[in-house]
Amino acid sequence: MPKYFKIIALALLLNGSVFAQDTLKSYANKIPMNIGACVDSNFYQNNQAYITVLNREFNTVVCQNEMKADALEPTQGVFTFTTADKLVAYAQQNNMKIRGHTLVWYNQNPSWLANGNWTRTTLLAAMKEHISGVLGHYKGKIFEWDVVNEAFDDSGAGARRSCFWQNVIGDDYVDSAFTYAHQADPAALLFYNDYSTCTINAKSTAIYTMIKALLANRVPINGIGFQSHQQVSDSSASLYANMKVNFDRFAALGIKLSITELDVRMLLPSTQTQLNAQAYVYKVFMQLALAEPSCRTFMMWGFTDKYSWIPSTFPGQGAALIYDENYQPKPAYTALFDVLKTPLAVAPPPFAGPSVAAHGAARLSFDNLSNSVVVRGGKTAHPVHLEMFDLRGSKIAEAYVPGDCRVPVSSFGVAQGTYILRAEGNGAMMRMHTTK
Ligand code: G3I
């Protein structure tokens, strides 16, 4: 090989151009953002094409069905973790994080639970046993859980869904589920998850009101999951603005926002116009996630059209995901890729401070009454590193505080306004509006 070829080859090798491949995962890791898809053990076992894309593009997975109550506790008090454990092992081997889905839902329950002859007391005990059994088993392995799923109905009135949890226990079954989950795994982030909630409507407003009350009552809830089962007809020019105002009000509560089950369905056969409209919807969701510092988990309900719940549930519709049935990327993939490649300037730079392992995971909330930041968790032996950013993503203050404390905003020496606050390496982030 001529000498100058060797020099060019060495130069390419050194700057990573030869082997490093830009993917959704490589860009998401830089933000950092959790990006992933739901999987099922049938999909990734002995399916090399599937595995190649999964491992190349994503850093996070969630079970499509295998962590639901019917799968994990088919007989009361008897837990069957074997299948779900395989996914946990697979994710760990491939350096992926795991979302947990789902603990308390009206659907996919074993018949002993769905058809039991319950009183409020016995059903709460069964709920506690299920949550403790599952979270105890996966303690430290699953970073965030959908604790309660779909507690509101589709009446358009923002009413609670009629189901055995609601009918036997009452509204506060939600409070109990979060409390039991926090007791079982204090470090896991705990989410309320639902669909048709991305814009302001009766359902999202009812959920907003519920979460606000839960927080006021010190119920340990950390976030809202926007399932985001969309359609190409959602691709209006006002989609971003309509979602932003809704996401902002949830972010102002000081909780995390996760996109948990995004897909964008269309009538089959797909047309180029539909695929472009679909790409636009995916793009808007990613732009919105990046614009919200508290939204750093972006999950799709699958990634290849080969495996999707849509065709069996909505006959005649499908093609909802970012790869086609032959694992070829669609315009929707390119849309996500392009947005991730040049994220908005509002995203603060990657954290460069001490690791969570050294300092413990802290959680943040804002107390309007005392104009203080509330830090929960963290190891008291080590200070928690807080960083404050303005809305353009520039760092304007930082502080080291003990775990489990209140920090008056005045101690940061900043003027009244809206800021983004971040705690150490676990990415706990919130947007807050100081009152003084
Ligand atoms: O396990 C049985 C199997 O034994 C049987 O042979 C087969 C025959 O149809 O059915 C299997 O159960 C199916 C199950 O998925 C597991 O494959 C159910 O029929 C089917 O209804 C179920 O669908 C799941 C659906 O939740 C149930 O509501 C979908 O795969 C799953 O993608 C979907 O996921 C939900 C989220 O959990 C919550 N948000 C909405 C989302 C889409 O509906």
Explain how this protein is built:
The chain is α/β, with parallel strands linked by helices and 436 residues long. It has 2 domains: 22-341, Glycosidases (TIM Barrel), CATH 3.20.20.80; 356-433, Immunoglobulin-like, CATH 2.60.40. It contains 16 helices and 17 strands. An 8-stranded parallel β-barrel has the order 1-2-3-4-5-6-8-9, surrounded by 6 helices. It has a 4-stranded antiparallel sheet with strand order 14-13-16-17, with no helix packed on it. Strands 11-12-15 form a 3-stranded antiparallel sheet, with no helix packed on it. A hairpin with a 4-residue loop joins β16 (418-423) and β17. The longest helix has 20 residues, at 272-291. Residues 1-19 and 344-348 have low confidence and may be disordered. Ligand G3I is lined by residues 64-65, 107-108, 149, 227, 261, 309.
In percent terms, what proportion of residues is strand?
15-25%
What is the highest CATH level, the class of the largest domain?
Alpha Beta
Total helices: the number is: 16
- Morphology call: globular
* Poorly predicted runs: 1-19, 344-348
In the CATH hierarchy, what is the architecture of the largest domain at level 2? Alpha-Beta Barrel
Strand order of the largest sheet: 1-2-3-4-5-6-8-9
Q: And the CATH topology of the largest domain?
A: TIM Barrel
Report on the biggest sheet.
8 strands, parallel, barrel
The multimeric state of the shown protein is: single chain
Bound molecules: ligand G3I
Q: In which range does the helix fraction lie?
A: 25-40%
